[in-house]
Write a structure and sequence with these properties.
The protein has 292 residues and is an alpha+beta fold. It has 3 domains: 5-50, Helicase, Ruva Protein, domain 3, CATH 1.10.8.10; 58-187 and 266-273, Tetrahydropterin Synthase, Chain A, CATH 3.30.479.20; 192-252, no CATH class. The protein is 46% helix and 21% strand. It has 11 helices and 10 strands. The chain has a 3-stranded antiparallel β-sheet. The radius of gyration is 26 Å and the shape is elongated. It starts with a helix and ends with a helix. The mean pLDDT is 89.
């Protein structure tokens, strides 16, 4: 049977599938575009299952604000090339819109959110089959601003780091600056009270028994202790003790105080953090592709 070249072109554009796969699909479905898409989808589900064990550690992290909501999510793929693919970015936009309306408490609920009668997990599997890389929505979180609270979001230019933040107060622009600070410096803890108790106690004991305090008047001791604790907590990556990136003469805590803001929560996502990446040499990778 002769293949309609216009339909072949359309099928490739709509599914982003390979030329031979599209040709075969049209042959199997007598040049019926919709039937060919269904054929590729059914075939692709099998391919997607084979990719389930692959490691998807590239992709994008996005943060955004809609009214009183701040939302952050990470959508993963296997290579940074696919992270720039239009189909991948279109899926990210659909997920972003869906998260505005959805309520979710964990990853299972997250991936069951529906977009046009398909779950996010199903849409990720469809795209996996289409472009040949494992696609997963790894995680997402949402903050809701109540009365006298503000939320802000920051996504870095390369879409690999994103931050959402919530505070008491009403200065959105200034709290967004703190989100930018968090994106840049990646603090390990937000507050002094966030430190593990044993670590916190160890720092306090170290400062309290420092030889520099010997024979110093009480007021001088208090000043020395304050400076030492500030340095210790900054070294440990406690946000409130870090010099603020936009005014290093102030700590983040001082900047918040000066702008009448009280930090409540913040979340930072970086693409691939915590995922153990598998290193495969080129020859092995080609061999694996040929097996499939």
């Amino acid at each position: 049977m002769a293949i309609d070249l216009n339909k072949l072109k359309e099928l490739r554009e709509r599914t982003n599938s390979g030329l031979l796969d599209c040709r075969n699909a049209l042959e199997q479905t007598n040049n019926d575009i919709e039937a060919a898409i269904k054929y590729l989808q059914e075939k692709g589900i099998i391919k997607a299952a084979k990719k389930a064990s692959r490691i998807a550690a590239e992709g994008i992290a996005k943060a955004f604000v809609k009214d009183n909501l701040a939302i952050i999510f990470e959508l993963n793929c296997e290579t940074d090339f696919v992270a720039k693919n239009k189909l991948f970015l279109d899926l990210a936009d659909k997920i972003q819109n869906a998260l505005i309306l959805a309520n979710f408490k964990n990853d299972d609920e997250l991936n069951k959110i529906k977009i046009n009668n398909k779950t996010i997990e199903e849409l990720c599997n469809d795209l996996t089959a289409s472009i040949g890389e494992k696609i997963t929505l790894r995680r997402a979180e949402k903050y809701v601003a109540n009365s006298n609270e503000v939320v802000a979001a920051y996504t870095h230019a390369d879409s690999r780091i994103a931050v959402i933040i919530k505070a008491k107060g009403n200065n959105v622009e200034q709290i967004r600056h703190v989100a930018m600070h968090i994106a840049a410096l990646n603090p390990s803890y937000l507050f002094e009270c966030s430190l593990p108790k044993d670590l916190h106690d160890k720092i306090l004991s170290k400062v309290e028994n420092d030889p520099k305090l010997a024979n110093k008047p009480e007021k001088i001791q208090a000043s020395i202790k304050s400076g030492m604790l500030r340095k210790e907590f900054n070294d440990l990556g406690v946000l409130m003790f870090q010099p603020f990136v936009m005014d290093e003469g102030k700590t983040v805590a001082k900047f918040l105080e000066d702008t009448n803001l009280e930090l409540l929560e913040a979340k930072r996502f970086e693409v691939g953090e915590g995922i153990e990446k598998k290193t495969v040499d080129f020859a092995t990778e080609v061999a694996e592709q040929m097996k499939q």
